[in-house]
Amino acid sequence: MSERHVEGPLQPGDRAPNVVLDAITREGKIALEDFRGQSPILVGLYRGLHCPFCRRHIAAQAQLDAALHEKGIESLTVVNTPIERARLYFRYHPLPNLLAASDPERISHRAFGLPNIEFTENETEWPHKVSMNVVMSMQVDMPGELPGPMNRPAAAEYLNNKDGYEITEADQRMAATGQGQLFGQFLLDREGVVRWSFTEVPEGGHRMFAAPSPQELMSAASQVAS
């Protein structure tokens, strides 16, 4: 497929592009076009599984799958992880009824307008460039998960150690080019039009590593399903 380049994340009212990706949790391909005219779908576009924050967001989205299905809404998780690595991970960390796809080239993220931040020495132009001083000043506070507020690299290392997640060569390849990839969730109606979204892009970086509350997401789902 030809890539579509978008200035900023897709907004409510925008028609989502079709993307075709390798399925992780089943054989074959997954295309967004397959859901059009059939059902609404929640599309979660995440960094690779090497990102402990995204692993938690993925699990949180999966926990809502049953409630979404009750409303007739499908759910798709997309990760920047090569297919074999992703399949191995989900084999040992299964999430019931998870529909997931592999996008190591981040085609879907670009198509939905999610930036991949460049880390710089001293230049910040959010959401395209961020200096390492700014990155180190971003505090992540996850009560129950972290012993206290920590900067992003320290928090990621702590959580990976806590999870026993071993960074492989495949993970390193993804991190080398996509460490700054911003994530987003997009709720599409059955015609493929964005009706709700949550991304890390707004608020100058204050949304980094955050996620919508289940209540916010399910409220949006109720409106799309009605």
Automatic annotation (TrEMBL):
<feature type="domain" description="Thioredoxin">
    <location>
        <begin position="10"/>
        <end position="226"/>
    </location>
</feature>
<dbReference type="Pfam" id="PF00578">
    <property type="entry name" value="AhpC-TSA"/>
</dbReference>
<protein>
    <submittedName>
        <fullName>Redoxin domain-containing protein</fullName>
    </submittedName>
</protein>
<dbReference type="InterPro" id="IPR036249">
    <property type="entry name" value="Thioredoxin-like_sf"/>
</dbReference>
<dbReference type="GO" id="GO:0016491">
    <property type="term" value="F:oxidoreductase activity"/>
</dbReference>
<dbReference type="GO" id="GO:0016209">
    <property type="term" value="F:antioxidant activity"/>
</dbReference>
<dbReference type="InterPro" id="IPR000866">
    <property type="entry name" value="AhpC/TSA"/>
</dbReference>
<dbReference type="InterPro" id="IPR013766">
    <property type="entry name" value="Thioredoxin_domain"/>
</dbReference>
